Amino acid sequence: MNEKVAKLYQERLNRYMTALDCGKPDKVPVSFGIGDWIVKHTENNFQEIFYDWEKSIKAVDDILPEFDVDVFGGGPTLWWPPMWDAIGSKLYKFPGMGLDENSTFQFVEEEYMKAEDYDAFIANPTEWIATTYLPRISTEFENPSSLRGISALIRSSVAFAEYNNYMGASWGKWTVEHGVVGQFTGMTKAPFDTLGDALRSMKGILLDLRRRPEKVAAACEVIVPHNINYALSGAGADTRFPCFAPLHRGSYPFLNPYQWENYYWPSFKAVIEGLWAKGKRTYFYAEGDWTPYLEKIAELPDKSIVFDIDLTDAKKAKEILGGRFCLIGGMPTTLLTYGTPEKVKEQVKRSIDELAGDGGFILGAGGVVMGDAKKENIMAMLEAAREYGTY
Amino acid sequence: MSEKEKKFVPEPGTCTPWKVKMEELGGIPGNEEIVKKDWERLDETAYNFLWFWVHR
Fold first, then answer.
1. How far is residue A327's CA from residue A116's CA, in Å, rounded to a whole number?
2. pLDDT in tens, A278-334
3. Rounded CA separation A62/A50 (Å)
4. Residue A369 belongs to a domain with what CATH number?
5. Residues of A in contact with B9 (CB under 8 A)
6. Closest chain B residue to A189 measured between Cα atoms?
7. Domain range holding A352?
8. Which pLDDT band holds residue B5 (cuts at 50, 70, 90)?
9. Is B4 on the interface with A (CB under 8 A)?
């Protein structure tokens, strides 16, 4: 890393760390990633960007010099499809593999865990994932003791290692060449989401809350130490950056207040507190609206989360959480798609005026920036952030 | 799979902990720490691989 880049990196890092600790940095930090909206600005289609790591890195390399952000959210793809293809995963369809080559990915939601699996899962979750879930979600691993099954497992585990190496190498390159600071290290989920997303599905878990709520509660409790461990292990030894927690079914009004307080929150709170006890902050990626739950969230230990504002009432979030937890957001993702550069700049100014206050605020998009977001709107956001974001 | 294996519940972060392996081996002639270090690291990777599939 040359001296100029090293200085830039340190400035950005200080800005991010200060805001995470609810302090006031020299400028309002800006956080943003390069989503699949970038694809149309390259010579590639979605399939090429998803599958070809070199092309994906190049897309990022080409735009980073003009991308003035303090905290970088990463490249255009969430997943590397070869890892999924290697085991014949049913969980996703990818561009060019089940979907048009110019489409983004799709999750295929099914009850991959059956209602009758609860007892086995609760008794021994890692064993159940290995022996029941993995064969069930993988066409190539349906018969684990066959050559086809064994080779599929080998292929996919090699791809898992390759993927982690690619990720590490990419971030190393972006840091050294562009001075980027990453948003987080490690990943976790709310146990209810672990159960409701990939295992029981939305329909399944909502029926479970009526028919077998005690099983839901027991499964969530069993998942807690695993989600703490998975987060810490994925982060290596790092406790400086928060751990990413994408949140789904806890958004209002998927669950009613009774269900949220009794089945969603206790186990997720335990994960956050367990991580915080190890010095690891949670990146509370609150997709959707969490306004009704802000008072409960405020019961968490000070600074144990950074709260991401998507459709949550920003003023209420500031009023209830501000000062004790860093807030991130202020730019509705819909405005980046349907707005104009002028409207985006107005929103940046309004958000900074309302939320930046005495610090503890990071400007960013509150949710996932979709593929149809306009580049001119994104660049207008970054420009306005620097114009209005000086304390 | 033996009855013992069926009843064994690994701690979070592990699939086959070193202590289980050592019980089966009944001890090794060389330096245990050298072997244990990589066993545990790779076992944790196996664990993370398995739990990766439910953390989509």
1. 41
2. 999 999 999 999 999 999 999 999 999 999 999 999 999 999 999 999 999 999 999
3. 17
4. 3.20.20.210
5. 123-124, 127
6. B55
7. 3-78+167-388
8. low
9. no
